[in-house]
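user: can you give me the structure for this one chain? tokens are fine.
assistant: on it. calling the predictor now.
[tool input]
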Amino acid sequence: MQTSRLCKIGIGAPLSGRGAPLGREMMQAAGIAVVEANETSNAAGIRLEAWVLDDAVDPEEGRTIAHRFADDDAVLAIIGHYNSNVTLATAPIYLERSLPLVAPIVSNPKLTESGWTNVFRFTNRDDVTAAAITRYLRDERQKASAIVVETQTVYGSSMSAQFVTAWKAVGGTVINHHQVSEGCEDFVALVNGFSGDADLVFYGGTFEGAPLLKEMRTQRYMQLFAAGDGCWDVGNFLVPAGRSATEGEGVIVLSACPEIGKVAGSSDFAMRYERQFGPITNYAVNSFDATMTVVEAICAAARRGALVRAGVLECLRGINRTGIAYPTPVRWDSRGDNMAAVTALHIVRGGHFHQVASI
């Protein structure tokens, strides 16, 4: 009997530290994809394995595990990393070793603007999502002036800068632009200094969004709270924000994929995920779909007799696959951005995110 060839998919994600819940969900969703793919991949004569390593949201640790992936010839592609700073640090290593990299969640424009020919972004970019939310705020909510609060991280700085650029492009004004440190929880003085003339507060960052919003409502600052997809997160924003998310003008939070049920197949996957790990809280659908896209490229390379990294990369470049994250087929533009990606906008209702627009 012919033995199936082992093909590994490296998965780099934060499994320790503050980002661990997000990394675990990414890992678990990708793992489901590999398990399910193995039920059909034998037709291509291969056996798939997910090899997961913890990058701890640390660029140096990311580089260390990137070399470990790259040194194993059985690793044919990478899913990762969760965070922009780690992914930007590791992409050159993967390029040097001809390893295809598919980033399910990373939104920093530099990922596909740096000339790395092995990189593919599954989600939308910060400049694209910023343009979507600013048009909505101006056209649908008739907002004109904003206070911007930015957490000083790679993601927070990128999302905030892109919002400011897009906001000014549609005629909006920025009254103040504040920077806060990652991990900050005391926003009393900051909110006390907010101008009453602003129509909204835009927050670019992740973990500081909930305490900022709660302080706004405590001080009866009831203007709209708008945020990037760092706050499209049940565990780190929705739950700790509590009723603050529905007080005053509420919130509008963007995401780089539609909510569960808007795309065929996403509800079925969510049920499979929940049976094993509990409810989806973040980008599990993107992680599953990105991994299945890599699986299809590996199987295509096997059928062509080109089951090496360069062969997988060639098949990945030509992918045209209908998944469950987006309504149209996954295809890459010349930079490696996914032309199927969309931006969704959500309010909070009844303790849940509720999609109000898809752009």
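assistant: here you go. The chain has two domains: 5-124+263-317, 126-255. Residues 109 and 147 are 23 Å apart (CA to CA).
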